[in-house]
Design goal:
six-stranded mixed sheet, disordered C terminus, binds calcium ion, single chain
Length: 614
């Protein structure tokens, strides 16, 4: 891992130094060192992952034909006259060029590129690409094209408090699974925008804990709907430790997204500390857009009850809540969206100056309290309709059993509707190959394209009340059994088997785990649920314990895997004994072809774990 990182950094440095050596002049009018006071984002503390400061994955641009759009990129990465494109795998033409109208150095290492959106680009969500010489910068899901005009209303889904994590902790892994299902459902329902009010990530423990941000980014790239997001106090744990992963992966800490009749102001509530600089910054933008009919404030902390402000040397704690309520009153905000409380809470005028909605959490809070999302309609005149209480994926859910990223020949999806009305969903799939007429069950193909050999599909699925559908799409019959990686965790005499199952074709349907003392008699392990996540645990009764995993894919292909765990506390003497090679019990009748490799893999994993523990 370290080697990879160093080589990437070296590569980036060399690209940058080559660009500097060439010292190609920046095109356009050079208005150097006069920072534009109304940039839509504040100063960054670190470089954005893709060299683009704005628009971003979390603060996209919404555009119509013949309109100008400002793009802000890292000046030193753009060596020659830039060209700008928007691209989407899910739109037939794939790539569309935008016309560069002007470039301008706005200071602090930022280059502004003004582009015009030509007519005829299909409506939809695109990646934004800046090309300049050999450099290509791409920010995913950063541009949404509405077409001829902005819509009369926005269908929005509000999600908040997902507490996503990747560490081996039941709650984090459950929350990750729930978030992935929420992304799939939002894509399925296809609103105009997904808005998120923070705690995307659960609090991190160490300054270099970048993995949850990186993994979240990879999940957000799968969105087929533009996302506007502001950080919460848990996301802020990274900032507290000096790591600006939020800026690197998602967007600025606060900012504004404005288009047509709509404006969204993002207030970073930190952990309740809001500096006066941020208030002045937002003051200026709100005043600038005072004539925009619809104003929405997005903030993690409910401003109407929580204390927000900063400490002043002489004055002590200074609250910024009066500033917020003054904005809502004076500029006639239509809506305030919030999270943090993990409950639904609706407060209306005259109790508060603007309709204030706190939505229930996306994370796992209890057996019947998880995976919430709230559909909201915002009209161009400022009227707001919403569903209350916030629905949950316990009622309507979309669960992909397979990666749908172009790495497999098939994908299956379980769609469940426990509600009272029929629901129509759009499911996106990328397969490793394209076929005009792939195998398909329980869905119809709405659109399909071939891109560089991959198969791009959008499926229409209708699911009746009380129905559960297994949707399948495949370009090859699935004849390969799943594979499993296992890492046993030994704590005293309790063994937890952490596993991950993969499949080449349609996806894994079922996994069963067993243990044995003698490698002959097997006991199935019933999962213990912690925060809704199944943990497979058993008690060791001997120094060497055996485990077995049976995995089955959606096509019915089965595989068995075996392994051993050494339990140091049950060792009779200090003399080390050799680990017996795990063997398949005789007479199980499983084809050898798919056992051999897996067993070797598990031995390696177990050995590695044992070595690490010493
Ligand atoms: Ca398979």
């Amino acid at each position: 891992m370290i080697k990879v990182r160093i080589s990437k950094i070296v590569a980036l440095i060399s690209i940058i130094s080559i660009l500097l050596t060439l010292s190609i002049p920046i095109v356009g009018t050079a208005v150097s060192a006069t920072p534009d006071s109304v940039l839509p984002f504040p100063d960054y503390h670190t470089d954005p992952l893709n060299g683009i400061f704005y628009p971003r994955l979390g603060t996209p641009a919404f555009v119509i034909y013949n309109e100008e759009m400002d793009i802000y990129a890292k000046r030193e990465l753009i060596g020659s006259e830039p060209s700008v494109y928007i691209r989407s795998l899910f739109i037939e033409g794939y790539e569309y060029a935008l016309e560069v109208a002007a470039t301008e150095d706005v200071g602090k290492g930022v280059l502004k590129i003004t582009v015009k959106v030509p007519e005829g680009i299909p409506e939809g969500l695109f990646n934004l690409t800046i090309k300049s010489g050999a450099t290509e910068l791409t920010e995913p899901n950063a541009v949404y094209v509405f077409g001829q005009k902005y819509p009369e209303k926005l269908n929005v889904i509000h999600i908040t408090d997902n507490h996503y994590g990747v560490r081996r902790k039941a709650k984090l892994l459950k929350n990750r699974e729930l978030f992935r299902q929420l992304i799939a459902l939002v894509n399925g329902l296809r609103p105009d925008i997904m808005v998120h009010t923070g705690d995307l990530i659960d609090g991190i423990a160490k300054a270099d804990e970048e993995d949850p941000f990186k993994s979240m980014y990879q999940d957000l790239v799968r969105l087929r709907v533009p996302l506007i997001v502001v950080q919460g106090n848990n996301d802020n744990t990274a900032v507290e430790k000096g790591s600006y992963f939020w800026e690197k992966y998602f967007g600025p800490l606060y900012g504004v997204v404005k288009f047509g009749s709509y404006s969204f102001f993002l207030l970073d509530a930190d952990t309740g500390r809001v500096r006066p600089e941020q208030i002045s910054w937002l003051d200026e933008r709100i005043e600038l857009y005072k004539d925009v009919p619809v104003k929405v404030l997005m903030i993690h902390y409910p401003y109407h009850t929580e204390e927000l402000g900063y400490f002043h040397k002489e004055k002590g704690f200074v609250s910024v809540v009066p500033n917020i309520t003054n904005w809502l009153e004076s500029y006639k905000f239509s809506l305030v969206l919030m999270g943090h409380w993990h409950v639904d809470n609706i407060t209306r005028p005259p109790q508060v100056p603007a309709l204030s909605i706190v939505s229930n959490a996306g994370q796992y809070d209890d057996v019947d309290d998880y995976g919430h999302y709230r559909p909201i309609t915002i009209w161009a005149d400022g009227t707001v309709d919403f569903i209350n209480p916030a629905p949950s994926i316990a009622t309507l859910s979309v669960k992909y059993l397979q990666r749908y990223d172009g790495s497999t020949t098939g994908v299956s999806v379980i769609v469940t509707n426990k509600g009272t009305s029929e629901v129509n969903l759009i499911l996106s799939v990328v397969l490793s190959k394209y076929q005009e007429n792939p195998g398909i069950e329980n869905a119809e193909i709405l659109r399909s394209y071939s891109h560089k050999g991959k198969g791009i599909y959008e499926l229409g699925v209708s699911v009746s009340p009380g129905e559960e559908l297994l949707v399948k799409i495949y370009v090859e019959e699935d004849t390969t059994a799943p594979s499993v990686t296992v890492e046993p965790e030994v704590k005293e005499e309790t063994i937890t088997l952490w596993y991950e199952a993969f499949d080449e074709g349609l996806g894994v349907r079922d996994v069963k785990l067993y243990y044995s003392v003698d490698n002959k008699t097997w006991t199935e392990i019933s999962p213990e649920f912690e925060a809704g996540y199944p943990l497979y645990k058993f008690q060791a009764k001997a120094e060497t314990m055996y485990f077995k995993i049976l995995a089955e894919d959606v096509a019915g292909n089965k595989a068995e895997f075996y392994g051993t765990v050494e339990v140091p506390s049950l060792k009779p003497t200090e003399t080390p004994t050799p680990t017996p090679t795990p063997t398949k019990p005789p007479g199980a009748g499983v084809p050898i072809s798919y056992i051999g490799l897996a067993v070797v893999g598990i031995i390696v994993v177990v050995a590695a774990v044992l070595l690490k523990r010493r």
